[in-house]
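Re: [ENG-882] Designed sequences occasionally contain unexpected residues at chain ends

Forwarding the minimal case from QA. Structure tokens:
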């Protein structure tokens, strides 16, 4: 009988050079029946990368006729409940390193809308609030010397800080 896929617990993740010389995402996994720690690569859909949180689980498939080398092709984190989705919807989330807390999520709805949020803010609420704030800007002075009031400037700075708390420039 051939080698079968099995569920493994993922201990840690890192990026390192693959056997072929390219960059590979490698995890340390502890699996029942292996008797040792294995370091398979993590494979996913092309163009999608994720570092599974410590303690999550994955499906390990041995490759090459031995359990010494293989790949993890799917992961699941039992510490965070999955979102409720309707047919045709997709959500992507990230957690703290220990996998215990959902920190950010993007949800793609069947009606074509998208929700983007972190643990405290959501993008739609910020954009709508900013538009309302701009509509309510108060200026002072004559037409030639008109400036935005100090209070309106403070409100705009507050929204700027909230956007900075939600969004990040890709690195």
């Amino acid at each position: 009988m051939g080698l079968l896929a099995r569920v493994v617990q993922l201990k840690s993740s890192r990026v390192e050079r693959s056997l072929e010389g390219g960059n590979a995402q490698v995890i340390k996994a502890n699996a029942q029946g292996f008797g040792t720690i294995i370091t398979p690569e993590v494979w996913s859909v092309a163009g999608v990368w994720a570092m599974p949180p410590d303690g999550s689980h994955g499906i390990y498939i041995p490759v090459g006729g031995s359990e010494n080398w293989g790949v993890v092709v799917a992961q699941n984190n039992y510490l965070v409940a999955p979102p409720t989705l309707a047919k045709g919807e997709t959500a992507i989330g990230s957690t703290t390193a220990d996998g215990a807390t959902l920190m950010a999520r993007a949800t793609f709805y069947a009606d074509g809308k998208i929700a983007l949020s972190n643990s405290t803010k959501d993008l739609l609420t910020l954009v709508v609030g900013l538009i309302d704030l701009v509509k309510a800007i108060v200026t002072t002075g004559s037409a030639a010397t008109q400036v935005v009031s100090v209070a309106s400037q403070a409100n705009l700075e507050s929204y700027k800080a909230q956007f900075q708390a939600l969004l990040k420039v890709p690195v």
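QA comment: On inspection the terminal residues look reasonable. The helical segments are 123-135, 150-166. Proposing we downgrade this to a documentation issue.
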